[in-house]
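User: Batch of two.

Assistant: Item 1 of 2:
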Amino acid sequence: MNIRYRVNLTEAERAQLTAMLSGGRHAARKLKRAQILLAADAGVGDEEIARSISVGGSTVYRTKRRFVEGNLDLALSEEARPGAARKLSGKETALLVATACSAPPRGRKRWTLELLADVMVRLTGHEGLSRETVRRRLNEDDLKPWRRDMWCIPRVDGEYVARMEDVLDLYAEKANPKRPVVCFDESPTQLIGEVRQPIRAAPGQPERYDCEYRRNGTANLFVFFDANRGWRHVKVTQQRTAKDFAECMRDLVDTHYPKAELIRVVLDNLSTHTAGALYERFPASEAHRILQRIEFHNTPKHASWLNMVEIEIGVLRGQCLDRRIGKCETLISEIRAWQNQRNAARARINWKFTTEKARDKLVRAYPDTFKESKPL
């Protein structure tokens, strides 16, 4: 015969449960237990509680029992559940981790769960070991031996800091139509054509396309982005030579910003992004005229993330280019449509990284004034 447990909450316990149900993030099971206790305290019967909260009668019984025999915290928490003992001991788990961190066997690029399970069977007395057991033990140490991360460690020195702060100060300035800040970069893209015509989507059927495709060469995208007024322009070319760069700078001066006194251009350190490129393309007088209206601001080496246009290129690829486009004419037309929509919406980039934040996050890269030599 089951014992009938009576729940009598104190004012503090009742307030705690009410606050839990009113807001905050809690597990669904914990919230249901809180509802059970409040309903039981109000004198509602077990069957009615189970029906209204959508739980089983045994759940209501166990929750009330854990509260009466224990306390509120015990009633809200999970009961310990019986289970099989771990297959790998502490020493065996340490051996597994050490093996996963070592070089893979000859002929293999990396460790897999199956390879690790086979090795552990040979090294221990287990007759067999599942890949899931291996995965769980490795997951406890946040270890995924099949993954590799590539890094690019820039040399963060005085030159790096100077260029970074120069660019960040430009972004922080108030918009000045006479002295615009234009971010510039380039990005290659492949022209991929269809071998067979795709089948359009229909109710209950997604769009389908053939796994085969035709490569039709490549194109280059020169991308301009105004940091202050939400304007962008994409120029599609066949190449990305120094002469193409020079023509982009002439377009910037004569076509896009004819009334600007000085155009501050933020760009990376590509070998073609130099003032000399203009002298290679135009007569000296013309190159000099263009450069009189342009001021280059280079990002630090291996720090192209400081260039706003990198974000805009990512948006372009995600919204427009993440598909097969086989002809250069189609590419130009599609990019122009995307560009016009973005410009009409005046879409901007909410840049939040400032010089002050840089000095806080990259404090080690800055000169340590405490280590400066003192005058004798």
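Item 2 of 2:
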Amino acid sequence: MHLFPKIKHGDLPKVAELKIDQDMPDLPLKYEAYTRLHRLEKALAAAGITSAKSDARCLLGMALGQDMPVLPHEDIAPLNEVGEARLAVLLARRLAGEPISRIRGWREFWSLRFALSAATLDPRPDSETLIEAALGWAASTAVKNARQIGREVEHESRLTATAWRCLDLGTGSGCLLLSLLSELPQANGIGIDISPDALGTAAANANSLGLTDRAEFICHSFADDLGRLGMFDLILTNPPYIPTSDINNLAVDVKSFDPALALDGGVDGMASWQSLLPRLAAVLKTNGAAFVEIGQGQENMVAAEAKKVNLQLIDSYQDLAGITRCLQFSIKM
């Protein structure tokens, strides 16, 4: 949608037509965005930003007051003084390392839009591995449960057949829980976090996605007793797991803009696991499943810690880069 409509001579009085023709003969009312995008892209690329092309399109769109990126072939109106100032500020923020998602205030995750705040982790595609794994488990378990009572479940009904109860430990923006609920229409869930600001963001996301009636958010630590919340079929968590000494080596858009509370896993990255796993095991149903996100190379350490609290490693899942990113646990019988 163009924010600045084209003006046709036939729509103006003759005097106005004459003024446009005589006073501004070389100023186009519209021009292709390519030239402006090219200059932005060069500035971003010179700063070593590998996503310069897509970032330039997003920045110009924001400067024009649009929600979507501007494409090179689009006709756009020249920026006025306010628009130029806005673009300069946006470009400076990106050159300083602030990611596009933080600048515009939202990130797409699981093809859904999630608002972000300073208190929430910026969700990344790696975390979608948990959703894929959890949905696979839900579908296969629904089929297995149906067969045990002598009936079949149609393929398209596998994710709608069961009213799963879900828990998200350290919910942040709510992206894990809400993405899961968007695919499981009979399910409901609880997301807990120790940050009231993060919980406010998660609740707002639930509202914008139409999931308020099935998602509840509670201020609570995953290191504390979870018994009052009841028992759960499905548990998801992406806790802080980065060793403290590794944080300074992270990309600027992570270490400078994601909350340290959501990143820092202590000296060896295991601090959260040691407090979280016993609480998780206490509220996971015996026939349920937990899906946890881990850091690179942490599989054996996390599995060993889980074994201490009677959790059995069932499977592991790789992210798009081929790194083991998600572990699946159940209660050992």
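The longest helix spans residues 128-148.
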